[in-house]
Write a structure and sequence with these properties.
It is a single chain. This protein is α+β, with helices and mostly antiparallel strands. The chain folds into 4 domains: 111 residues, Immunoglobulin-like (Sandwich), CATH 2.60.40; 49 residues; 107 residues, no CATH class; 142 residues, Glutaredoxin (3-Layer(aba) Sandwich), CATH 3.40.30. Helices cover 43% and strands 18% of the residues. It has 14 helices and 17 strands. The strands form 5 sheets. The chain has a 5-stranded mixed sheet with strand order 13-12-11-16-17. Strands 4-1-7-8 form a 4-stranded mixed sheet, covered by helices on one side. α7 packs parallel to α9, α8 packs antiparallel against α9 and α9 runs antiparallel to α10. The longest helix has 30 residues. The protein is elongated and about 85 Å long. The N and C termini lie far apart (62 Å).
């Protein structure tokens, strides 16, 4: 449960250490009593997304199940969990910094009694009422299962209607509380009736499109992105993943459009920082090819472009990262890589005639490179029949290691390059290629695929996927050409 700061990704560490947690009143004191536990330790942690929790305090439990969380600095407000032995836990709302609660391990929710925190009183009363209604529903479902009585369906519909009515009335009466916002955020937008008969297939298609458009258009209605407390709940991360993974087309343009839309709503400083971090971290090393352009946009607009949100070190690092990635985006012309071949002749990549050019950038002593080399040798036997040229570029400037690698893995048919150049005037060796900063080689091997005009069409593909990607790209290109011809 506890976050190991040493293992946090840099971008997450920066976010956690810079979130503003200032409170007007310092200190917290939370007394708890849980029947069924004794002589153990319990933890108080706030959510950071749904899959991370940050421990804020621990407390010893006495023989009667009593414990006391306390500290001199106020806790940042949000949704917390109290972690108990045997993987039991319960959520509590931290707003008021002084309150007490009492419950029982036989049922942490229904047995809960809270004193001194109106938010938690409302929170647990809601859960208790809902639990009672769901118990009633389960009883009717069992009745239906064993008796198959038609009255059971009537009862179920009535209970469902009662639950819906109860929730709507509850949201009205609790307006203005954080608990109200939490429950709203857990709900999907309610889609109004379509209002048209579905007489044809086209009508049905239009109906589904209507549902999708309404759902997406109102997706954020129930989430208050001006409230910084939401970063300490599981709901914001879940909502963002749903929106960007399931409702957003995975292309840079679409991701950029939706990012700007969400951030136009995210007025809370900490919420804004979290949203920026979450999207940026998803697309810096994206799972979907060609979406790293979204990261560059986010880094430029919301890190470099909003320096007041971040410390100077973060802004500087993002500016440096953009400088590396921007020239290497899919669709960009591949930057010049200064290499010489095995006899010392300069390799001019733009002059290589091929339908596709594959760059395999490696270190002769890298384990992953040595695993990939036999796969590359095998793939090349098919690739060369498709007018594909492969350039293998060594980042190690030791000729003996370089040539040994070529011989060992029988890669002689490839174009081999190394960054060693002799100065014609001095006769000394010189190096011109900065693999790390010019080609984003922070680990090897790195694969780039270029089209016939030497524009980047793919990068960081596993060697075994290169041929399938090229075949797919060729078909797509042919289809586009035929379509354009037909249009004329």
């Amino acid at each position: 449960m506890k976050i190991n700061v040493k293992k946090l990704p840099l971008i997450l560490f920066i976010l956690l250490t810079n979130l503003g947690f200032a409170q007007t009143k310092e200190g917290f004191s939370i007394h708890g009593k849980v029947k069924g536990i004794k002589d153990t330790t319990v933890f108080l942690a706030h959510y950071f997304g749904y899959n991370q929790q940050v421990i804020k305090d621990t407390a010893k439990v006495d023989t009667e199940g009593k414990f006391h969380f306390q500290g001199n600095k106020s806790l940042p407000e949000g949704l917390y969990l109290v972690s108990l032995p045997k993987q039991k836990y319960m959520d509590i709302v931290i707003g008021n910094q002084e309150f007490s609660f009492e419950t029982d391990t036989t049922n942490l929710i229904t047995k809960m009694k809270v004193t001194g925190s109106k938010e938690n009183e409302i929170f647990f009363k809601f859960q208790q009422d809902m639990a009672a209604k769901f118990d009633e529903m389960k009883a009717v479902e069992l009745e239906k299962k064993f008796s198959n009585s038609p009255l059971a369906d009537v009862k179920l519909r009535k209970i469902q209607a009662d639950i819906s009515k109860f929730q709507k009335e509850w949201l009205k009466t609790t307006e203005g509380t954080f608990v109200n916002k939490l429950i709203k955020a857990s709900q999907d937008p309610e889609i109004p009736p379509y209002g048209k008969p579905l007489a044809t297939k086209a009508d049905t298609s239009a109906y589904y499109q209507y549902q999708y458009n309404y759902y997406k258009g109102h997706f954020w209605d129930n989430v208050d992105l001006t409230d910084d407390r939401f970063i300490r709940t599981p709901f914001l991360q879940k909502k963002m993943e749903r929106y960007f993974d399931d409702l957003t087309v995975q292309s840079s343009d679409s991701i950029i459009k939706e990012t700007d839309k969400v951030l136009s709503l995210a007025k809370g400083r900490d919420v804004r920082r979290y949203v920026v971090y979450k999207i940026a971290s998803s697309y810096e090393n994206p799972k979907i090819l060609g979406t790293d352009g979204a990261f560059v946009h986010i880094a430029e607009k919301y890190y470099v472009g909003e320096p007041a949100l971040w410390d100077t070190s973060t802004v500087r690092k993002m500016r440096e990262r953009v400088a590396v990635l921007k020239p290497l985006l899919v669709g960009k012309e591949f930057p010049n890589m200064y290499l010489t071949d095995t006899v010392g002749t300069e390799i001019n990549i733009p002059k290589i005639v091929a339908d596709y050019t594959v760059l395999f950038i490696y270190d002769p002593e890298c384990g992953h490179c040595r695993e990939s080399a036999p796969k590359l040798a095998k793939a090349y036997q098919s690739l060369k029949t498709k007018n594909v040229k492969v350039i293998a570029a060594s980042i190690d400037r030791t000729p003996v290691k370089w040539k040994k690698f070529i011989q060992e893995f029988k890669l002689q048919e490839l174009i081999h390059g190394i960054d060693i150049h002799k100065n014609p005037q001095t006769g000394k060796e010189e190096y011109y290629t900065d693999f790390k900063n010019s080609f984003d080689v922070y680990a090897t091997p790195v694969v780039y695929v270029l089209d016939k005009n030497k524009k980047i069409i793919a990068k960081r593909l596993p060697v075994e996927q290169v041929e399938d990607f090229i075949d797919f790209h060729r078909k797509q290109s042919t289809r586009e050409m035929d379509k354009n011809k037909a249009g004329k």
